[in-house]
Amino acid sequence: SSARMAEKQMNRGEYDAAVATALRKLERKPAHAGAAAVLTSSFERARERDERRIDFLTLEGREANWPEILRLYEQLERRQERVRRAPVGVWDGVAFASYGERLVEARRRSADFSFGEGTRLLETGRREDARTARGYFEEVLRIRPESSQATEGLREARTAGRTHVLLSFSNESDQILPERSVAELQEIPLREIGSEWAEFHLDEDDGTLYDYLVVARLTQVAFSPERVDRDRFTQSAEIVESRREVVDSTGATRRIEEKRTVTADVTTLTLTKQVLVAMRYEIRELASGRLLKAWDRPLSADFEDRSMTYEGDLEAVPSEWRDLAGKKPRPFPSDGELLAQAVSILKTDFVRSLRAERSVFEEIPWEPR
């Protein structure tokens, strides 16, 4: 089956896939003649295709062709190494070539071209070009990881290609936020947003030209009343004390269970309190003043405490309450404490919302050429 699949892949021009499929077959059955024929033929066809493309690109004489020429030589090398790693005898009849000198030249010329192109793009001063330059410097570092010039070029490209986003929080509700909550909002973990091409600021920097403004508006804060739900009930349950087997007069074995009934008078106490906060997020493009997006987010911080007392046998108490035996009720939190919890939830939601909108912030506003 895999040999037939390899042959079909070869006939469709999927030579590398055919090589991989044939190798898997030959690793299991090294003497499989059909798979060996497909391996040899696919390997040769792939090499001829790549070498013809290299000849054409070299004949064109363009420096911009060297990155592709290098990728083709690397592909030729990888294919040969893949076949060489197969068991001895699998690759009988496969002719290997030496690409060492040509690879060295391709690496040198590809690195030189990529560095020059990245530098040229950086010099235009346009963010779009800086983002393209990043790829060229990364290619240089793939070839020459030790290049300090390419490392510096990559750093400059990443910096020059970024948009800048100013974040702002506005309390438009009738509640005064605790000081610790205001301080917490100024400690948003910007690294967690994880955007490559957008840089976020919580404090305005006079030396930065901002592209986008994000405003988080706290429009409403509402506290629920403190609620106490008390429930009293009597619960009974049958408990199996022991089990034994007996043989009756007919010789049949029967299982007998000895049970006892337990009872408990149970009182459960559930305390709940909630604060609801209404948030409105807005994203504006500062150059044009356009409102790009706005959405509302209802959030809440909830307090719930459950406790239970009983008289009688604990085994009669329902399992969902049994672990609370002896637990004392917690006091209700103050409005300020509950609001502080809501602010922590708000901060997490704000970061999550910014992360979801990364593609908006990374868009480069229109720049004159």
Uncertain segments: none
Q: Topology as H/E string?
A: HHHHHHHEHEEEEEHHH
Distance between the termini: 58 Å
Q: Helical residue percent?
A: 40-55%
Short description:
The protein is α/β, with parallel strands linked by helices and 369 residues long. The chain contains eleven helices and six strands.
List the helices and strands and how they pair.
Elements: H1 2-11, H2 15-28, H3 33-60, H4 66-84, H5 100-122, H6 127-143, H7 148-160, E1 163-171, H8 179-185, E2 198-201, E3 212-223, E4 227-247, E5 253-285, E6 291-312, H9 319-322, H10 335-356, H11 358-362
Parallel strand pairs: 1-2, 1-3
Antiparallel strand pairs: 3-5, 4-5, 5-6
Question: Describe it for me?
Answer:
There is one protein chain. The chain has 369 residues and is an alpha/beta fold. Helices cover 44% and strands 27% of the residues. The protein contains eleven helices and six strands. It has helices spanning 2-11, 15-28, 33-60, 66-84, 100-122, 127-143, 148-160, 179-185, 319-322, 335-356, 358-362; strands spanning 163-171, 198-201, 212-223, 227-247, 253-285, 291-312. Strands 1, 2, 3, 4, 5 and 6 form a six-stranded mixed sheet that branches. It is flat and about 95 Å long. It starts with a helix and ends in a 7-residue tail after the last helix. The model has no long low-confidence stretch (mean pLDDT 91).
